[in-house]
Amino acid sequence: MNEFPQSIQFRYQWRTYQKKILADMDALLQNQRVHLVAPPGSGKTVLGLELMVRLNKPTFILAPTVAIRNQWAERFLELFWQGDETPDWISTDIRQPAFVTIATYQGLHSLCSQEDDGGFEGDDVDIATEQETESLGGKERKEAYKRLLDMGFQTLIVDEAHHLRAAWWKSTIDFRRSLVKPTIVALTATPPYDVSQKEWKNYIDLCGPIDAEIHVAELVKEGDLCPHQDYIYATTPTVKEAEPLLAFHNDVKSFMQQIKTDKAFISFVEQHRYITDPANQAQEMLANQAYFSSLLIFLHACSSEAWKQPAKLAGLYEKNIPPFEEEWAEELLNHVLYKDAEIDEKQSPLNEIRQHLQRIGAIERRKVTLRSTKTFDRSLVNSLSKLDAMTEIVSFEASKLEGKLRLVILADYIRLIDLPKQPGDEQPLTRLGVIPIFEQLRRHINQKVKLAVLTGSTVIIPTSAKKQAQTEAEKVGLELKLQPLAHDPNYLLISVDDNTRAKMVSIITAVFTTGDIHVLIGTTALLGEGWDAPSINTLIMASYVGSFMLSNQMRGRALRIERGNPNKTANIWHMVCIDTKQYDGGHDCLSLQRRFKSLIGLGTEDNIIESGINRLAFPKPRYRRKLLKESNEKTFAWAESRQVLADRWRKAVAMEGRPTEEISADARSVPRPLWFETTLKAMIVIGFLTLWQGVTVERPSSYSSKTEMIFYLVYPIVVSAIFAAPFFWKAIRIWWRNSTIEKSMESVGEALYKALHQAGIVETPWEKDAISTIKAGHGSLECWLKIGTTYEKTVFLKALQEVIDPIEDPRYLLYRQSKAHFRTRKDYFAVPTELGRKKATAEMFHREWKKQLGKAELVYTRSFEGRQFLLQGRVKAMSAVFVPRSERISAWR
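^ that's the sequence the OP posted. Answer follows.
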């Protein structure tokens, strides 16, 4: 077989945005690469299948999991195939390839190599993987791989390729290279914009530059995704969970006070080589700049004078030294106790300090942890306070939607052992999981809310749903084995095994859709990917183990439109347990913020569409119980009116827009211009010549005529105007370009882009107003580039982040010093890696910087003098510990 049967074609109508994408594909396919970005629910799988049919060549499709692999086959049969039976030219068994072969990356890797190392990002309990090739011996693998190559695949489709680990990358790249001029079709929901340049290059080498992007806003506008909103419900640890956590924080607090008065340890730090001989340790101090800073900060906190000399060398002023808190103590103690090879870790007083830390549980595997421990991190993630949160959320949604409620809760584990065995056997719930969540809701939620459980091994339905379940079972030819739940006759337990699992999912989904089930609790492994239930209007994310990509997939379950229900909206609830004793809220809070980097949606207060947690107006550190309570109250108020949500989405997508990649940066990190010195020069010139004029007026008798006196009066004015004009003009020009913080960001961006263009790194010429910057909430700015290719925008934003973020180890940096208000100010900015590789390109950036922002000095940091500047810059960066780093976000503008 060399081509598809002529009858193969898409059986339905294309959506508007899909037509737009397909209209451009013929031109794009001439390059033998197509790279499409599209969110879950946009039909990217269908577009991939259409491209496969248009190319009309033997095709190999790679998917990240077994569930998604099977979904490719199911979608093709459902949407393109005209027959009832699966044709023999489609295979999901990599050992028996066919004209269309669909496999997982893991399956290909296992076949290519003699081992099964690496894995899908976040590989754990909720990721299904392929095991077909594990039983094959070395010879059989080689034969199977040869059969694969003999198929002569000319179309290679890679789905969500960027989530692969290094070993899988190599196998995929090697396989692609073994094909003869294949056409690559790359599909993804979340491009890896935040990875290193090397990783991005690997990704682009496989997938090619991004050719087309479908945005969530387009899908909602076209009616292909429903209006939706993410909500965050914040909890704090339960009393039982908080006791050991509070004891730990108190022990650490006591230790922090004690160490600052420990004369033996203070003396030990004062004798450190970075303190006694900093001039000869510059290179090592650069490599361990945080360690060096921690020594200074500790000595300053102890009122020791020893910090002053090394601080002077590093250009660090006392006002810029941050307080000695747990983060700095961890940095200091981890080095002196374990990492610093020049220190004997067994000497006194280190041994006593180590024993103290071990007593309070602040050392784990030779690592000092004063803010939290792995045990406490897990207790936050799995806090039982989230059970109460789910009860409140379900009660709230049930009160608003009543019988229309279709709520799904996704959890990581089943915990079947927690199901009571008989009446009165109800034990206190001690952990999260499907069964504990079911029991929590069963015990505390009104009987009118019909609960159900759906996992691969356990199914529970309300007794009232029995008739509907049996009706749905008859449709698929399955006889249900039901028995009353031992401890509650209002529920039925249904037997399920490997042979009936797929049909059981179909049955329970149908019962859920009819409304005989209101709340369905299931596992991420079964329902998180590939499960289609368009009736879902509320989702609670009680899953914390999977990858960030999986979060997007799970969330996508609720966003799908439902036929016959044009007014559908979806609320997606995320729970977070916050440790109020930690400035950043602790591990669970940080994890939630990372997850939101890939979740795009509508703002809760403004009609903006972008990724990141800031759009939800979630409180900023430091967190307090009262603040979190107020936040939850606001959240319920926002979630109350779904009609308002739908109206706000309509307003947000009403205007023409396009997807953008941006950076969100704290306004304090944006370079501001220096016009003080330029203005001062002009004032000096004017002052000097005015003095001359004053002398002239005071001595009128020295002039022979009135004309001569007028000449000497006017002459200084004219001369001062001529000489001062350039300085005044430069000051005015810089001020005008940077009159607001937004304009300053745009000036930095303009200087950067022009330098990148001059260096040949970006090809699109500069245009006026090519950069846009707006003020966002919480004192931040959002900046994006309106010209250039996706690749050029990525290069620009990455370089801009390097400029405004605290410097790390650039080859060149920009240094400037100014005096204002009787004090000296020093600033250090990195020359981005792309421009810093060569002196010539670094100088291009330097020239453009001076035009836009005023005077600065270009410093080569690999020289002895340059290392001093770099050390000073990095130490200053550490003093700005509470200024957050910039972040990449996706938006619709």
